[in-house]
Amino acid sequence: MQPALVFLKAGALAMLILLLTLSSQLTFAQDNSISGKVKDAGGRGLPGVSISVKGTTRGTNSDADGNYKINAANNAVLVYSFVGFENQEITVGNRSTIDVTLQEDNKTLNEVVVIGYGTVKKKDLTGAVNAIGTKDFNKGVIISPEQLMQGRVPGVAITQGNGEPGGPINIRIRGTSSVRNGNNPLFVVDGVPLSGDETSSGGDNSGIGSSSARNPLNFLNPNDIESMDILKDASATAIYGARGANGVVLITTKKGKGGKGTLEYSPSIGISNITKRYDLLSPDEYAKLQPSNDRGSRTDWQDILFRTGVTNQQNLAYGAGDNTGNYRFSLGYLDQQGIMQKSSLNRISIGLNGNKKFINNRLNIGVQATVSQTKDGNIPVTDNAGYQGDLLAGILKSNPTLPVYNADGSLYQSTNVAEPNPQALLSLSKDNTKTLRAVGNINLEFEILDGLKFKTVYGFDKSMSSRKSAFSRDLGYQDIQNQGRLYLTDIQIDNNLWENYFTYNKQLGKVDLSALLGYSYQSFDYFYQKASATNFLTSDLDLMIQNAASASTVYNSDPNKNLIGSVIANTNYTKDELQSYFGRVNLGLGDLIVTGTLRADGSTRFGPNYKYGYFPSAAVAYKLINKDFIPKNVFADLKVRFGYGVTGNQSIPHNLYVQRQRYGEYTIQTGGRNVSGGGLNSEAFPNPDLKWESATQINGGIDFAFTGNRLTGSLDVYQKNTQNLLIQVASAQPALTPFVWKNIDGNVINSGVELALNYVAVDKTNFGWDISVNGAYNHNILKNYGGIINTGAISGQGLTGAYAERIANNQPLFAYFLREFGGYDEAGNSVYIGGDVQKFIGKSPIPKFTGGLTSNFRYGNWTASLFFNAVAGNYVYNNTANAYFTKGSYNNGRNVTRNVPSLAEGAFNAPDVSTRFLENGSFVRLQNVNIGYRINPKNSSTLSNVRLFLTGQNLFVLTSYTGQDPEVNTNKSLNGVPSLGIDYTAYPRARTFTLGATFTF
Predict the structure, then answer these.
(1) CA distance 734 to 748
(2) Are the C-beta atoms of residues 245 and 177 closer than 8 Å to each other?
(3) What three-state secondary structure class fits 312?
(4) How many helices (H) and strands (E) does the chain have?
(5) pTM to 2 decimals?
(6) pLDDT tens for each residue of 732-755
(7) For residue 990, what pLDDT band results from cuts at 50, 70 and 90?
(8) Residues 83, 627: Cα–Cα separation, whole Å
(9) 8 Å CB contact between 77 and 93
(10) Cα(447)–Cα(711) distance, integer angstroms
């Protein structure tokens, strides 16, 4: 009975399907044939327009002339859609011919772009500005804001110094312009310009090298950022005057939206592993090649010290808004484990963004603030370790047949410098930093008359940071063994901003007027104190740190033991002020738009004869699209731009122009038994004529969109000339001070081309595909300079005093200055082309080309994106290979990469600084892949939306570089002059996979 019942049910279902099919066919048979033409507002036929019957899968496309045919019932609704035009729906009725005119969708052109002290519609921009928002940002484990835009903006080159969590980063907008000063752009968060100072301490040189401070932008939770607007040319940045020479990045945080309150919760978990291990000799290979050095164990130091890092992110936000105001509160938590043991970053952040209107919406009161606490777990990976090496050097060079532990469980340590135990260095040291930072503003804006507004802003940037580094006396490193070392550093920053400005926006006949006039005052207070100690009685790292203030309980001061307790402390306080007057006028004269800007900045950092600097700019834009000679069947938009301006750079140390005296800092000498320093000394020679570096820039651009706005883009050509270079010049001896700061003759010229393209390949209801491409070429050269500055220090045993870069006339900044390696002679000695002398070899660490490609897909509720970035034309100096992967190192019992032992015997492998270790740094990287799926809960009264996502970062890199990763920049300064493009035991880069979700209530 049961099988029969199943059969009957199946038969009934089949019959029902058949009847429905016949009914459908009957209905189709009654459909009418509809034909027509789809045109734009100018009467031109539009090819490729999608015409579909609403609620069905039936559809067609218009031909090359805009003609189409489709079958539809009288009560059917036809939907016409085309990229760049507004959708249109038409009911068929009794008609057999339907002609349609589509209206252009100008949402893109009407998008608002943030500029200094205001906003402007994208179609009215006169300067070189790129705006990116949440849909454009890089995805995954993103620690700081600049990582959101890496590779996304033409002309903006972002290089991570290394792969350390929250590690240092270099940002260059349109090239490198300054020799001694900061080259990073000015960051402005919700209207508050950041000073750019280091907010946390770098690592002190404890005999294993010093390290750079973490990225000062780590305080800001990227999940709170709504948009980033990058001002690149002088006509856009001159409104920031003395700080605009290297470009400006305006960060706008998210605001509350929607009439009702919206709660958003975003959890994610990330897994990270090293992308590329060094190809070192295995323990068995090493023992076979060097049997006399076989210590009996089999240790893979990379396995022991590298790990799988886990990142936990939790973000919670609640906000709402209407036409009278909005608010948003956010709470963020990030805990990132680095891929090396004990390295980490932990951040808790709180965000507030609120605005409320009063007095018939004429008064607006707003507040934006971010407060965060960041804890850094530092490890002894340094920038300039000498012959002993740092933690990573120990991993690379240590004998792989050494044990990690002795038989009694204690850490094995050898007195042979060729046999360090990197696990001992890690276990017998402790280094942590805690930074509390608050950045925000309170503002009030009142509309005095229609179009005339006054705004006053109080901004603040306050931080407190403390770093505690301890090295146990049990550690077998020179200057530490039997002594121990402790370093305590506190940094306090208190920067305050007060700005007042009027804005006026009015349509005066055919003239669209927008004007700005304002005053700004910003103070910068910087205080640090540093204490160092040695000769400890205890090996307990926690006790060393906890009782640092009680020297009698920690330090051995008993002269009978011939050990002198050494404790020193140094402090420093500076205060700088910046007073500014600024104005801007923007005139819309029909198709012509004219912008003029002037800012006057007065700074306490410069001499009385040049206390104030003046920074003007002018720009024009012309909308060619409105002219009759522009073919409307080709272009949907066409605008040309030209801009000129002068900007400045004041990123120099405090008060360099006044002759003054100060007490010198104390230091603990090598061996830890003596203290030197102190005494009242002259600090600088007077220079009343010291003034800003200034950059003059011209920019020509064209913005375009082809018919249908399917392909849009922009092309810019620029030249930036930086002069009045601020250089530290050595004083003729004998003299009171070893140097003086001067503006010297010389021009750093950056010239280049930038291109950005966006192409909508497919835009269907259930499927879409768009591609964004950006590329930039930059040429850098120093002209009219009569001096020579050496930099690019090279570290390692036997390399004291070596350098690889030189700044000189008719060369790019930081040009490589090396022996030109030509191979080996019969005895195995190095042969150098042109003799054993260093010379310019025509190679530079500055990239000539940077670019990115993004491909976005959507299908139903699925989304996917792939992002590639590329760098070309730059070279990287492999200081790591220079110091450790040579035959000399191998002959001294150190481990090396597999290719070294196969080299011929001889003295040829001396670690001379030469082109032998210079490598092409070009690469193409699959930086980001993101797959998402959106769920719309239909039966939930509280949960409105769910998005699941999987992200992969740094999935692979195509490069000829033999080091760990070509995107690297170790701080290798020489006499205070920075370097570029040197790789020395840098913290490795990681590959990360992140799984997460966003729940909206």
Answers:
(1) 32
(2) yes
(3) strand
(4) 11, 53
(5) 0.87
(6) 666 666 667 788 899 999 999 999
(7) very high
(8) 23
(9) no
(10) 40
